[in-house]
């Protein structure tokens, strides 16, 4: 059956009342947490992982996808109203969006962000549905050396892109790889790094790692810098756009989509680069009134980056679903969610679990439509969410995280590990180490180790087997490029 027919089957699953309810819960939660500075979709999905054990996989992933897209939508609200991005990808939106709000055009800024996100998300999801099966077919031919090289590419790309320095990114990755080694070696049966604690023989559950590093670490970091004053919120009004705003927005929406999706699909591409490129492109193409308004609140500077942001969010699902390769923090948590259900994203996922994959892809279209309905009329309501006292908010998160971790196996050791990882997450933020490489290292590290051992066994110990295929050579060359490029840029600046 072709992709279009499978997508229609996916809509049959996504449009059931139960899954529509989960989609609504997901997009509402995602928008809520996107509005709150410092609480992103990765943290929310991590917190919800422990309580979704009894939820069917398709419904759970429909909710997680709604949180992912909703977080991207909600991040624009704080960028525009408070000049405080809820997500790093929303930083560029704040440049023009907040200036529009201070000129009394907050409603128009929120409207172009919501509509642009809807258009970009819809187009990018359609591209995802078309591209993912083709990439999955190619990936079926990968051997152990190719998968090991792919993991190396993920390690280096994420470490170099998601960090202010390559060294800090690799240090975070190293911590994640060490955490992934804890437990029994699958080949020799020897216990590794368990400190004689029987509960650690099975390793540390990825849910505890995600909740500890993301949620608990973020709470401790914010608490150490807590301000009790409620932020000043710019009045919103009714979100609407006149004919001039529509005329100035539709081209940036399309250009932002064209930039965002390819970058999101690249390993380590992320949403930060295409949003910046979109802003730069719109500024260079601006003419007349738009050129005069750039730097003072140009609507093109909101429309383009927001479209690029949401298109990149759909693009990150391409390597995740087809190769099992997470290219963002939220994608890493989604990979942990797949493993929680005993599923491994990759080319065989499309063959073994087509209902799940195509139901998930169809739900992205449904979630996009729900987000548009939620964001346009409810923008003033989302702005009021910012008045929730932060001590109450973060105390609730700590309690929820502890209950979720304990519910996994009712073990006090899990709680101690959670608190230790929370302190580690705080220390990493305090000293500027990114969190995403650590989580990706913990998740992909065991897979990379297994594939490396298989490749060396096939080659009878000859290390040249790791560069015996063109695919592996390309991946390793890209890995080297990801490490060298930041150093070259620094030398050029000097």
Automatic annotation (TrEMBL):
<feature type="transmembrane region" description="Helical">
    <location>
        <begin position="204"/>
        <end position="223"/>
    </location>
</feature>
<feature type="transmembrane region" description="Helical">
    <location>
        <begin position="165"/>
        <end position="184"/>
    </location>
</feature>
<feature type="transmembrane region" description="Helical">
    <location>
        <begin position="468"/>
        <end position="488"/>
    </location>
</feature>
<keyword id="KW-0472">Membrane</keyword>
<dbReference type="InterPro" id="IPR002823">
    <property type="entry name" value="DUF112_TM"/>
</dbReference>
<feature type="transmembrane region" description="Helical">
    <location>
        <begin position="138"/>
        <end position="158"/>
    </location>
</feature>
<feature type="transmembrane region" description="Helical">
    <location>
        <begin position="356"/>
        <end position="379"/>
    </location>
</feature>
<keyword id="KW-1133">Transmembrane helix</keyword>
<feature type="transmembrane region" description="Helical">
    <location>
        <begin position="391"/>
        <end position="424"/>
    </location>
</feature>
<feature type="transmembrane region" description="Helical">
    <location>
        <begin position="60"/>
        <end position="82"/>
    </location>
</feature>
<feature type="transmembrane region" description="Helical">
    <location>
        <begin position="431"/>
        <end position="448"/>
    </location>
</feature>
<feature type="domain" description="DUF112">
    <location>
        <begin position="20"/>
        <end position="440"/>
    </location>
</feature>
<feature type="transmembrane region" description="Helical">
    <location>
        <begin position="109"/>
        <end position="132"/>
    </location>
</feature>
<dbReference type="Pfam" id="PF01970">
    <property type="entry name" value="TctA"/>
</dbReference>
<protein>
    <submittedName>
        <fullName>Putative tricarboxylic transport membrane protein</fullName>
    </submittedName>
</protein>
<keyword id="KW-0812">Transmembrane</keyword>
């Amino acid at each position: 059956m072709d992709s279009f027919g499978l997508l229609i089957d996916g809509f049959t699953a996504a449009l059931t009342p139960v899954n529509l309810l989960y989609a609504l819960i997901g997009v509402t939660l995602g928008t809520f947490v996107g509005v709150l500075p410092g609480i992103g979709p990765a943290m929310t999905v991590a917190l919800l992982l422990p309580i979704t054990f009894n939820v069917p996989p398709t419904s759970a992933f429909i909710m997680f996808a709604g949180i992912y897209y909703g977080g991207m939508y909600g991040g624009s609200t704080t960028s525009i109203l408070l000049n405080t991005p809820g997500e790093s990808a929303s930083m560029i939106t704040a440049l023009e969006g907040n200036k529009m709000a201070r000129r009394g055009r907050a409603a128009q800024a929120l409207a172009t962000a919501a509509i642009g996100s809807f258009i970009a998300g819809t187009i990018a999801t359609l591209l995802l549905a078309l591209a993912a099966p083709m990439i999955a077919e190619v990936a079926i031919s990968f051997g152990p050396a190719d998968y090991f090289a792919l993991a190396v590419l993920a390690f280096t790309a994420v470490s170099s892109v998601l960090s202010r320095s390559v060294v800090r990114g690799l240090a975070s990755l190293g911590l994640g790889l060490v955490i992934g080694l804890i437990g029994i070696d699958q080949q020799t049966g020897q216990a590794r790094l368990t400190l004689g604690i029987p509960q650690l023989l099975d390793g540390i559950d990825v849910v505890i790692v995600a909740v500890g590093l993301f949620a608990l670490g973020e709470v401790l970091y914010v608490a150490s810098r807590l301000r009790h004053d409620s932020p000043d919120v710019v009045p919103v009004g009714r979100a609407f756009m006149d004919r001039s705003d529509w005329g100035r927005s539709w081209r940036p929406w399309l250009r932002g989509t064209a930039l965002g999706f390819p970058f999101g699909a690249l390993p380590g591409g992320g949403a930060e680069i295409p949003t910046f490129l979109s802003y730069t492109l719109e500024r260079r193409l601006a003419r007349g009134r738009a050129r005069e308004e750039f730097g003072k609140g140009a609507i093109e500077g909101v429309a383009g980056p927001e479209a690029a942001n949401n298109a990149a969010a759909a693009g990150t699902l391409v390597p995740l679903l087809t190769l099992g390769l997470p290219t963002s923090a939220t994608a890493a948590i989604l990979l942990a969610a797949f493993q929680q259900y005993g599923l491994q994203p990759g080319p065989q996922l499309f063959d073994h679990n087509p209902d799940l994959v195509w139901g998930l892809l169809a739900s992205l279209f449904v979630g996009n439509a729900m987000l548009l309905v939620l964001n346009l009329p409810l923008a003033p309501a989302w702005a009021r969410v910012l008045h929730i006292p932060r001590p109450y908010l973060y105390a609730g998160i700590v309690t929820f995280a502890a209950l979720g971790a304990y519910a996994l196996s009712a073990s006090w050791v899990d709680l101690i590990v959670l608190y230790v990882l929370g302190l580690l997450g705080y220390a990493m933020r305090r000293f500027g180490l990114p969190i995403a490489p650590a989580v990706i290292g913990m998740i992909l590290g065991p897979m990379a180790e297994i594939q490396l051992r298989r490749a060396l066994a096939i080659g009878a110990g000859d290390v040249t087997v790791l560069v015996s295929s063109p695919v592996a050579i390309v991946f390793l060359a890209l890995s080297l490029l990801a490490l060298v490029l930041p150093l070259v840029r620094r030398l050029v600046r000097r």
